[in-house]
Amino acid sequence: MERHEGSNENRLSDRTGPSGPAVHESMDTSPQHTRASVLSGVIVIAAIVLGFLLVFIVQNSASATVHFLGMQGSMPLGVAMVFAALAGALLVALVGIARSLQPRSAVRKRTSRQH
Question: Which Pfam families match (predicted)?
């Protein structure tokens, strides 16, 4: 006799053994992901993105003059655009870090006032 607990049918089923006590049997058939398998997947994706990035830089190798904070220089257009994208990603990351730290400091202030 099988019985499913709650709405999670694929996790655990109870079976009554021939001698009486219930025997728990795992019904989860999803593949188990190890850290090594996840890491290898991330490395493959990063290598593909790096390949596209290198193709982009090589195809946009025309020289461009860049002006920044009173400085002036010349570099390949693809490299300049990658630097701009990295600067934008860094700015977004900094804003995200600031937003994640803000609620924590508010909670710390609130808990220090209560004690």
Answer: LapA_dom
Q: Strand 12-16 and strand 63-68: pairing?
A: unpaired
Question: Rounded CA gap, 31 and 29, in Å?
Answer: 6
Query: How many whole angstroms separate alpha carbon 48 and alpha carbon 39?
Result: 14
**Cβ atoms of 58 and 79 closer than 8 Å:** no
Question: Which residues lie closer than 8 Å to 2 by C-beta, 6 or more apart?
Answer: 13, 14, 15
User: What contacts 79, CB < 8 A, 6 or more positions away?
Assistant: 57
What is the DSSP secondary-structure string of 10-42? TTEEEEE-TTSSEEEEE---SPPPPHHHHHHHH
Buried/exposed code over 61-97 (b: 16+ C-beta within 10 A; e: otherwise): eeeeeeeeeeeeeeeebbebeeeeeeeeeeeeeeeee
Residue 4 neighbours by CB distance under 10 Å:
13
